[in-house]
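S1.2 Input.
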Amino acid sequence: MRKSTFIALVCAAVLVLAIGSSAVLAAEAPVKLGLGHITSIAKSQDLSVDGKGNVVPPMAQVDSAIAAVAFDAKGRVVKVTLDSAQSKINFNKDFSVASDLAAAGLTKVELGDNYGMRKASSIGKEWNEQIASLEEWMVGKTVPEIMALKVKERDAAHLAVPDVPELTSSVTITVQDYLAAVEKAWENAVPVATGGVKLGLGHEVSIASSKPAAAQVNTTLAATLFDKNGKVVGVFIDTIQTKVPFDTKTAKVTADRDEKIKSKKELGDAYGMVKGSAIKKEWHEQIAALEKWMIGKTAKEIQALKVREKDANHIAVPDVPELTSRVTMTVESFLFTVGESYTDAR
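S1.3 Output.
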């Protein structure tokens, strides 16, 4: 073969590869953003008496598996961040609150090595390391492919442990809720502007609204997609308000432990804010207006939103012309979670 012909063929091959790579990159650009959660109160405990006759005080527990996911035009996962918020509210025997209501709620990712799974792990990996391996496995797959993950039952507490070669040595936690959270993220995914390169998940977990015989966990979440300049190209904000009431006479949890807990966005008009709203807008309508206002702004610009105190329960209501007629709820938690999502974006 002549040298000139060989060089021409090589150049043509390089061009084809370059075009192919560009096509792949274009196809993998995020076009949708979703936020999913699976929240349960199943592990909450009634007041009871143990085998030695000792009174065991009641305890409310709220577990939320969370997924922030960016999808491409073919429905494949481009970026995904998984986390878990495990909140416990302890009560005394008289049902007064024993937990520190001012304590900040930390997720399992935030706890890192302090979560303490490594010492009990057969593979010597902490929870945040295992969830990172699951995230990596999900990238490039569609939701049906993710939901088809082969799993096995390890024991009564681990009903769905990955059973595929890529994960058996890196993930031994049960994963069904994280798969389901990704599926929900796909179901509620919304279009985003072009240019998204980093995905962040922000959260604020509070038990401050808990009262005697009535636990409450408020989990505010923000999935945010940022461009190379740190500007928001897509944002999905939601709040899960979970209540665990007790009957002091029967000493039992009165809520349905098997109930599928819905977020405020999922509740939609059923949340019931309209009847008390001065602008006659439901929670999901107001948060949509705030999300729209955030597009094109940096986290710093969002944090600088001018607000005013309307009353003791609304200490940070937007005070800018673009929002005063569309958002009358207090927004400090939403601004905080978007700011945190930028800090943790990857």
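S1.4 Remarks. Residues 3-27 have pLDDT under 50 and may be disordered.
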